[in-house]
From TrEMBL:
GO BP terms: DNA recombination; transposition
CDD domains: rubredoxin_like
Keywords linked to the UniProt accession: DNA recombination, DNA-binding, Metal-binding, Transposition, Zinc
Biological source species: Bullifex porci
GO molecular function, one term: DNA binding
Protein name: IS200/IS605 family element transposase accessory protein TnpB
Record has Iron-sulfur as a keyword: no
Zinc is among the record's keywords: yes
One Pfam family here: Cas12f1-like_TNB
Ranges where the Rubredoxin-like domain occurs: 327-366
């Protein structure tokens, strides 16, 4: 058992390209987007007209034709164009693997976030604070921290706010080995977490983490900025400026939200419990409830859970998802009575059987804690529990996909911490 799955970690650094480099980057973003969209069109048409599907290799052949028709495609890093094909292929694979959850690949828009990948020949110079990208050169970069591990992909991103970033995805082996993993021996070893709308997370030990509701706070500002964009003439440079301001506001909200998530998850993991249990929330289903949808997307539950899981793995803590339809807030954590008529607006309720007054979320977190503990143990000798070793983490979603030979073979020069390129 244990976490044998590879640990991927992403590091993001702000880039400060010169005006000249910006135009080179713009050309790469544009070409990659162009190739992606043309290949998607190629696949769509092949299906519409002849009911045929085109695979990665067909697309590669078509990409070569595109280069003959549009010679300017040869001016940019050809590997980045190749990656566009690869990414489109991945998008299709994900769609066919999980058609209900993953959407059909869509065309990339000029106004959205732009990105391209460099699979090879990226160099990092920590001392000079620069990153080398093929066909573009050394770009100023702020390394707020060093990255560790084997580099998998390097992605250059231009946010709609006008900020450039380089995102380095690394694989590192810092997760603790799973064979001698400790299992909880008492309920106190387990921390139950109830995710909520009013409070971001309530823990079974009584700690509460407030949801800062950044989006709600900035909503007025967003509305003003949105109205300003709407009032500007389409295609005008004033409209472009207004769009940029709006994008900056969105980016700030996202950063604030991520900050809350990082701090909260770090705090939870640092409590040093043997296991952390959460409810396997049906966030997609909850999104259909419009009153809840906004608050949930604001708190970005799924992102929170993903970060919590990753931090647990790094820390050597078990991460357990308690089944979704387990009625955690309706069950009295003291006597087991189920209060069927509990409504969403009821924050507190009194158990009619044992008379204990429950705070809705706190009660839920204790139930999650108990359920999680139960899942890790099997009863023997008339109720006495004994830990049992099983695979605790439901990692179907993160299950290793088909080995990606091409990706696994990526070797970057001089990008390790030990030997930055000079
Ligand atoms: Zn009760």
């Amino acid at each position: 058992m244990g976490y044998n799955k590879s640990m991927l970690k992403s590091f993001s650094y702000r880039l400060y390209p010169t005006a000249e480099q910006q135009s080179l980057l713009a050309r790469t973003f544009g070409s990659v987007r162009f190739v992606y969209n043309r290949l998607l069109e190629y696949r769509n048409k092949a299906y519409e007209r002849r009911k045929e599907s085109r695979n990665y290799y067909d697309c590669n052949a078509f990409l070569r034709k595109l280069k003959d028709i549009y010679p300017w495609l040869r001016d940019v890093n050809s590997q980045s164009l190749q990656m566009a094909n690869k990414n489109l292929d991945t998008a299709f694979r994900n769609f066919f693997r999980n058609p209900g959850k993953t959407g059909y690949p869509t065309f990339k828009k000029r106004c959205a976030r732009q990105s391209f990948q460099c699979p090879q020949n990226v160099k990092v110079d920590y001392k000079a604070a620069t990153v080398y990208l093929p066909k573009i050169g050394w770009i100023d970069c702020v390394f707020h921290r060093r990255f560790k591990g084997d580099v998998k992909t390097v992605t250059v991103v231009l946010e709609p706010s006008g900020k450039y970033y380089v995102r380095i995805l690394v694989e590192n082996g810092i997760c603790k080995a799973g064979t001698d993993r400790k299992l909880p021996t008492s309920l106190d070893d387990v921390l139950g977490i109830d995710m909520g709308v009013k409070t971001l997370a309530v823990c079974s030990d009584g700690t509460e983490y407030q949801n800062n509701r950044h989006l709600a706070n900035s909503e007025r500002k967003l509305k003003v900025l949105q109205r300003r964009v709407a009032r500007k003439k389409k295609g005008s440079s004033n409209r472009k400026k207004a769009i940029k301001k709006l994008a900056r506001c969105h980016e700030k909200i996202r950063n604030q939200r991520d900050d809350t998530i990082e701090k909260t998850t770090a705090d939870i993991v640092n409590k040093n419990h043997v296991a952390v249990c959460v409810e396997d929330l049906n966030t997609k289903g909850m999104m259909h409830n419009h009153r809840l949808a906004k608050a949930i997307s604001d708190a970005s539950f799924s992102r929170f859970l993903a970060r919590l899981e990753q931090k647990c793995i790094e820390h050597g803590t078990l991460f357990i998802k308690v089944p979704r339809f387990y009625a955690s807030s309706k069950l009295c954590s003291n006597c087991g009575y189920i209060y069927k008529d509990l409504t969403l607006s009821e924050r507190e309720w009194k158990c009619p059987v044992c008379n204990v007054v429950h705070d809705r979320d706190r009660n839920g977190s204790v139930n999650i804690q108990k359920k999680g503990y139960e899942m890790m143990t099997i009863p023997v000798d008339g109720g006495k529990s004994t830990p049992v070793k099983t695979n605790m983490v439901d990692d179907r979603a993160n299950a290793p996909k088909k080995p990606n030979v091409e990706k696994a073979g990526i070797v970057l020069e001089n990008t390790t911490q030990e030997a930055p390129c000079l």
